[in-house]
Amino acid sequence: MEDGRVTLISKWKLRNGFPDELRGKLKKLADKVKKEQGTLMYLVNIQTCAPLDSYHKPIKPQPEPILPELQSEVVFMEIYENAEAFSRHVNGETFNEFRKNTLKYFQADPINAGWPITETEFFSLQSGFIKKGILAEVPV
């Protein structure tokens, strides 16, 4: 199913863990990106432990969170209305200001000066859903 949307996951490699200061900057980034025309979904994540054991049963009690100093990447999950909307985001002031002002938190790309090391994959949505109000349930 090709509908013109751009769906991606981008992993940015952290330099020295995940400091609280970066958490705040990512929250502000998401709040600003929410206002961008054509940005349909923008989720910022860090790693956590698996909630199931090797038999696929819930671990009780749930594992402790991964300590901020042990975090190794920030994962962005994004959907854009089309390539033009994605281009506006990547070339826009909000994204580039964030990238320039937070580069010190990420491993620098030795080939692409001024950019962090990233692993980005693009996807073609085939099926699925996002339940209404899902983010209202998540404390961010």
Could you characterize what this model shows?
The chain is of the alpha+beta class and 140 residues long. The chain has one domain: Alpha-Beta Plaits (2-Layer Sandwich). 24% of the residues lie in helices and 21% in strands. The chain has three helices and four strands; from the N terminus they run βαββααβ. The chain has a four-stranded antiparallel β-sheet with strand order 2-3-1-4, with helices on one face. α1 (20-33) packs antiparallel against α3. It is globular and about 45 Å long. The mean pLDDT is 93.
What are the salient characteristics of this protein?
140 residues; alpha+beta; Alpha-Beta Plaits; 3 helices
Describe this structure in a few short sentences.
Helices cover 24% and strands 21% of the residues. It has helices spanning 20-33, 83-91, 93-102, and strands at 6-13, 39-46, 73-80, 118-123. A four-stranded antiparallel beta sheet has the order 2-3-1-4, covered by helices on one side.
User: Based on helices, strands and strand pairing, what is the structural class?
Assistant: alpha+beta
What is the CA-CA span between the terminal residues?
A: 32 Å
Q: Tell me, rounded to a whole number, the average pLDDT.
A: 93
Please compute the radius of gyration using only Cα atoms.
16 Å
Helix content: 10-25%
Spans of at least 5 consecutive residues whose pLDDT stays below 50 are none
Total DSSP E strands: 4
Q: What does the largest sheet look like?
A: 4 strands, antiparallel
- Architecture, according to CATH? 2-Layer Sandwich
CATH topology assignment: Alpha-Beta Plaits
Percent strand? 15-25%
| Number of distinct helices | 3
